[in-house]
Amino acid sequence: MTAPTTPPELVQLLTPEGERVEHPDYDIDLTAEEIRSLYRDLVLVRRVDLEAVALQRQGELGLWASLLGQEAAQVGSGRAMTDADMAFPTYREHGVAWCRGVDPLHLLGLFRGVNHGGWDPIEHNFHLYTIVIGSQTLHAVGYAMGIQRDGAEAASLVYFGDGATSQGDVNEAFIWASVFNAPVVFFCQNNQWAISEPLEKQSKIPLYKRASGFGFPGIRVDGNDVFACLAVTRAALRNAREGNGPTLVEAFTYRMGAHTTSDDPTRYRVADELEAWKLKDPIERVKAYLFRNQLADQEFFDKIEAEADQLGRDLRARCLALADPQPGAMFDHVYAEPHALVDEEREQFTTYMSGFEGAQ
Amino acid sequence: MKRDFKLPDVGEGLTEAEIVRWHVAVGDTVKVNQIIVEIETAKAVVELPSPFEGEVAALFAAEGETVDVGNVIITVDDATEEALTESLVPEEPQKREPVLVGYGVKQGPSKRRARKSPSAVPDRPAAEPVPLSNGSDRRVAVLAKPPVRKLARDLGVDLAVVAPSGPNGSITRDDVLAAQAAPAAPAVAAVAAAEQDFIPVRGVRKATAAAMVSSAFTAPHVTEFLQVDVTETMNAVRRLRELPDFADVKVSPLLLVARALVTAMKRYPQANSTWTDEAIILKKQVNLGIAAATPRGLVVPNIKDAQALTLPELATALRDLTERARAGKSTPAEMSGGTVTITNVGVFGIDAGTPILNPGESAILAFGQIRDMPWVVDGQIVVRKVTTLALSFDHRVIDGELGSYVLRDVGAMLEDPLRMLAWS
Which H or E run contains B274? Predict the structure, then answer.
């Protein structure tokens, strides 16, 4: 068998040039206000990301995983959820966190090493970041089966990358979701690179086609098209809530930056590829669309730009002001209730720490 | 107020970085997040953005210098009032900065500290060490609590030579302090240290080491030798020098060796190739590398498309390439993309060697010195100009047969330069 030579069709509603196109199965009717608001989210999310990269380079964060290039996939899918839906992120879903109302400062705290994920997952219906590759797909399926048993009107949406599709956990999650008809949407951001491993070394077929083998639909969407990501994810979530089981959404996008700040992509990928994807920028096409259809003027764009700069400055100041936790704080969240063994361990640890020179 | 920017750990547990290029100079005005410097770590070349706004007051490391993480590399004056309270706070003792992975980055004093010689340890006999119940070697099983171990480390005391007084033969805090107070003897090791010099491993030396190790341990090398009578080549060199085409450029035996090797690469394209796990990539261009000894170390720039050059053009390219290399001005483009290399060991008065391949190439030719040797011509012993050629090749790509053909043909062309005309 030979691999298909033509690239498979992907759902696109807004071309890289900012032209609106129709799709027979997926359409979306957005007001000018909604489009401007999507644009604002895309710009602000990118700004948060840039500031975080700079802070890492200045020694203020231990690490950062940049989302540059994946803003549309995250904002589109993030905005598709209802308040009752539950999101399970990897460690790169800063845009989804933004859509779920998580203060970016909490994300920075995690990468600064002063918290273990500083937000309440239940408050935001946004689970903590998962560093282990793909394990959150199992959590999401379990959560979805809980929704199913509660008879609730909700679905779970789980994020993972192209590399994670090679993990056992993800494949097990597909199987469980399929046989239990769980209300879950698998949202795979295929950014083409699993650190330094290109997609063609991971899969002989397009990723979305894998779903059919597990027994549920898969769909490929232009991951740099925020309209399409919103429309497709919204439909998939609705489908799940209505009891029709899981969907795999493959958002076809590109990681414009390094895997993390510890990585140097120039060592393994060619500049031409990056240049080609620059032309498909997720933000520029929305800007072009707004401009061409006179849905926004220069004043609007300037205002968003200024807001982004303010957000960056503010985030920087608050990040630098984050207090280092006391070493003993790690015992505080092991159990919700008091626990004799943990108390004993805390006591031992405190005694141990006081044995150091200059201990408080 | 002057604000210091310390070299951060930009890659999870890195301890040092080399300053590649400053983007700012003293007196420049910088903004927050403006790129100020490029650094190269073990993992990547990274641009660092300024955390401060203001005027650059001082740079503390030169380009090419390797700096430890935690050292101040730049000071920026943000033109605000000096905060007195801050300057009154004494420097904190060495402190570990939290990072996500690993044990944190220790902030050390400026520059790299000298290696500690064993003489720093008080040379005090371990008077009557208390035998351990299991009778094991004390050097292996020193008993001490972690805070005591830390104290010993901080004070530079080797626990193995501290006499224990605690329960079960364990070393206490007081034992460590007592050991530190004991007079430090000027040990023999100090003399040994004085007899050694340390050259920091960086720059070209570091890159050369990495390339050699990578090449030597990935490509199975084979080297073949051939002695060649190059009397005719020397005659050809002499006559070429008289031609007006070569009036402005030096004609050396190396030029003809270069032309012979390029010609051989065209005859045997598989020798002009790169091994990858998926395919052997045959290069249509011959990018001829010349290993050059420069004040900075070994560099191997290459002449692009050498197969397309006329002999005078090749001579000019050779001259320009070596001049730029010696001046330390070889461009990164010149140093990458080579397909085959010549190393001219003859200039050092050497006959032959077993050269290591330039990574990514499949063959390298060592050109030995040319000297007068007794040689048999038509049954008579006569004095001829003779050199030794050594060809190392990657046995994954080139079998003994092909390698032998390449070396034999290069030799044949040097023995009778007319063959270069016939074969090119």
Answer: strand B273-275
